[in-house]
Amino acid sequence: MSLRQVPFLDLASVTSAIRGELELAFAEVLDHGRFINGPEVARFEAEFAGYCQARACVGVANGTDALELILSGLGIGPGDEVIVPTNTFIATAEAVCYVGARPRFVDVLPDTLLIDPDAAEAAVGPNTAAIIGVHLFGQMVDIDRIQEVARKQGLAFIEDAAQAHGARFAGQRAGGVGVAAGFSFYPGKNLGALGDGGAIVTQDTALADKIRRLADHGRSAESRFNHDLRGRNSRLDSLQAAALSIKLRGLDQANAGRVRAWEQYAAELPEHVQLVSRHPKAEAVYHLAVVEVDNREAVCAALTAAGIGWGLHYPVPCHLDSAYAEFTGRMPVAERAASRILSLPMSPNLSQQQVTTVCDVLRGIPR
Q: Are 145 and 174 in contact (CB under 8 A)?
C-alpha cells in the first residue's frame, strides 16, 4: 500500500522528531522500575497544571475516566441530570451515564458547532447538577455566556477539554476555568501520549485530592490499606507521563503549526467549502480542521481518489445514537451539520504544499 499524498494526521513524523528524547526518558523509567506512580507522573502533573493555569492535576488512564472521575468527585450520580452538547464524541455522554446520572442533550451554535448557552439554560430542570462544555475541534466554548448560565442556575461547569490542549478564551487557558476539566492524551490529540492517558485539572485542591483517591481504589489518605471511598483503578503510568513531559515542552510550537495550517485553509479553500467559525475571543489550537460541504459523499470520494486523508467528527449526534435513544429530542442545528461536516488533514507539521494540494482538489469538485 502506498503512503497517502496528504495523510489525515502524520503521527510517525511527529514522534520521530523527538525519538531520541523519548528513548532516553524511557531508559530512565526502565532503570528505576517504578512503572506506576514513578517520579515522572508527579513531574508531569505539576507541569501540566502550571501550563493550564490551574492549581492541581491528577493523571488518569484516559479522557473518559477523567470526566467520570470529575462527576464522581462532585457527588453527581443517580437522580441528577447533566447538560451535554449533542455534537461531541460519545465519551462525554458515557461518563455521565456511568456515574448513574442522565445526560440532557442540547443543541449547538450554527457557526462554531459548540454548545448553545441559550439551549443549555432552557434545558435546566430541578435535577440538573452540571453543564459539560465541550471545547470541540480545538476551540473553547463561549466561556462568558456558559459560566453566566452556570452561576445563575447554581450548576457546576465542567470542561471537556479533550481536544483543546493549550486553547484560550479571553486569555484563560482550557482547564483553568471550570470547577474541573477532563483531558485526553489519546495519541492523535494536540498533546498525545504513546497510548492511552488522561488527566483532570482543577483549581480546587480538595477536589483533586478526592479524585486522586477515587482513581486509586478509593484509598484512605492515612493508610494505603484502608479504602474509605468506593473507587476504581485509573492511573497514568510512568512511561506515558515521561513522554507527555517531553511533548508538553513543544506543545505551543506544535499548536502554532496547526494555526498556520488553518489560516492557509481559510485563505485558499473555495467558497463552497466553509470552515467552522472561530469566536472573536477564542484562541483556537485546531485539533481538527472542520468544514461544511453540500455533497459530502462526492467530496470524500474525490479526496480519497487523490490520496488525501479525511475524517468525520461526528456524523451521528449523540441524541440519535441507538444506545442513547431514551434521551432523544429534536436538535436541528446539530442534525443538519452532521450530514455536512468533514475534517480535513491537520497536523502540526502539515506543509504549505500539502494544504494547497487539499484546496486544489476541493476547488476541482463540481458543485
A: no
Q: Nearest to residue 180, comparing CAs of 70, 75, 81, 84?
A: 70
Residue 124, Ramachandran bin (φ over 0: left; ψ between -120 and 50: alpha; else beta): beta
The whole model's pTM is what?
A: 0.97
Nearest CA to 193 out of 238, 240, 147, 127 is that of 240
Residue type, 48: F
Closest among 202, 211, 186 to 91, alpha carbons compared: 186
Domains of the chain: 11-249 (3.40.640.10), 251-363 (3.90.1150.10)
Question: b vs e for 121-137, b when ≥16 Cβ sit within 10 Å of the residue's Cβ?
Answer: bebbeeebbbbbbbbbb
**CB of 350 within 8 A of CB of 256?**
no
Ordered per-residue pLDDT tens for the chain, 367 residues? 345 799 999 999 999 999 999 999 999 999 999 999 999 999 999 999 999 999 999 999 999 999 999 999 999 999 999 999 999 999 999 999 999 999 999 999 999 999 999 999 999 999 999 999 999 999 999 999 999 999 999 999 999 999 999 999 999 999 999 999 999 999 999 999 999 999 999 999 999 999 999 999 999 988 889 999 999 999 999 999 999 999 999 999 999 999 999 999 999 999 999 999 999 999 999 999 999 999 999 999 999 999 999 999 999 999 999 999 898 789 999 999 999 999 999 999 999 999 999 999 999 998 7
Q: How many helices (H) and strands (E) does the chain have?
A: 13, 13
CA–CA separation, 364 vs 301, rounded Å? 13
Joined grid coordinates for residue 275: 470552515
Residues 6+ apart with CB under 8 A from 314: 87, 88, 89, 338, 341
